[in-house]
Amino acid sequence: MQTKIALITGASRGLGKSSALHLAERGTDVIITYNTNREEAGKVVSKIEAMGRKAAALQLDMNDLHSYDNFILQVSGLLKEKWNTDKFDFLINNAGFGATIPFAQATEADFDRLLNVHFKGVYFLTQKAILIMNDNGRIVNISSGTTRFSNPGYSMYASMKGAIEVFTKYLAKELGPRRITVNVLAPGGIETDFNNAFIRNNAQVKGFIASQTALGRIGEANDIGAIIAFLCSSDSYWINGQRIEASGGINL
Hints:
This protein is of the alpha/beta class. It has a single domain (5-246), classed as NAD(P)-binding Rossmann-like Domain (Rossmann fold, 3-Layer(aba) Sandwich).
């Protein structure tokens, strides 16, 4: 059986790193991207290679849409050089950043950056990436629990993620003839570096989120990475066009 290859954006840490490691544990080779943290990306690659899988890291700034054509060329060259192929199998659109911005203080610059990274960039990177994806592949987009429940300061961020959820359904329909499934995963509160480690560094916030969660604790990166790996597996083939919330049962 031919080895599957995943491309995961924003995987030098957090959810992307966890999904890369879980996929590697299941026998998948991985290409990860990083924006600025080349050293941490290298550590992820080393961990994957220590499992006996192939891995590589490429730099990608999701805010720079003009760089996407060159990035896809780099991916193509890497696939040929390292795997002797011209296609990959799984795309995980994970890269992003957090920003708690009250509506009254929001600026157009804030809006444009969130739009580029969390929606417009995902839309057009996916458009280019599917040209070098195998049929019968998997696309997993990352959303947020805040599209279902409202947290003050997340109006822009959650709006972009809401757009991703609609986009996911349309993409699933249009890629159906190629048997590429497309799903969107919506995490609840997760203890990572996201949004300047806002949850991790705030015991009061952690306690509140845990109190609102049926399973009684805050989420961890591995809670999400394992689900992403499952959504890329052959066992998930009949799940398509779905919003899957992974939050431990928050705000039920």
